[in-house]
Amino acid sequence: SGMGGSASGSVHSQQQSRLLPPEMQSLEPMQQMMTEQVDKVTLELDGILSGDVELGPAEKTAKLAGLKMQIQHLLLPMVSSQCTYLASVMQAGTDAGRNTAIRRLKLQHMQRSLEGKQRELRDIINLCNEGIEEGGA
């Protein structure tokens, strides 16, 4: 069987996922992808702003503008659509009387984590803007 190493965390995640409605479980891979994307952008930004990456002023400005676009048009909309989705899941669960205390807690934590991501992305956009302004100075 060519299913190498995937079994290790699966029991835990199965237990975890019992607490989450199925529509929430589908968010988990999305959140993982988001985190990876945000980390990638953050690392790239750090390289540009710290001067680790050798760039001329015009190149630097272009790279920062590109990152900013990526965040504004790809990452932020992804996060806000997840927030919207989460809110509707919470509402549906409440309407159906399905939200146990622990489930509500899980959903609220997920919501806070998404809101944190939104703030983080907005802060990163501000850093891009500062870098762009410096580049243009």
Task: Give the topology, please.
Blueprint lengths: L9 H9 L3 H4 L1 H24 L6 H39 L5 H36 L1
Q: Helical percent range?
A: over 70%
Distance between the termini: 60 Å
Rg from Cα: 19 Å
**Residue runs with pLDDT of under 50 for 5 or more positions:** 1-9
Number of strands: 0
In short:
It contains 5 helices and no strands. The chain is an all-alpha fold.
What this model shows, in words?
- The protein is mainly alpha-helical.
- It is built from 5 helices and no strands.
- It has helices spanning 10-18, 22-25, 27-50, 57-95, 101-136.
- Helix 3 runs parallel beside helix 5 (101-136).
- The longest helix is centred in the middle third of the chain and has 39 residues, at 57-95.
- The protein is elongated and about 60 Å long.
- The termini are far apart.
Keyword list:
137 residues; mainly alpha; 5 helices; 82% helix; 0% strand; elongated
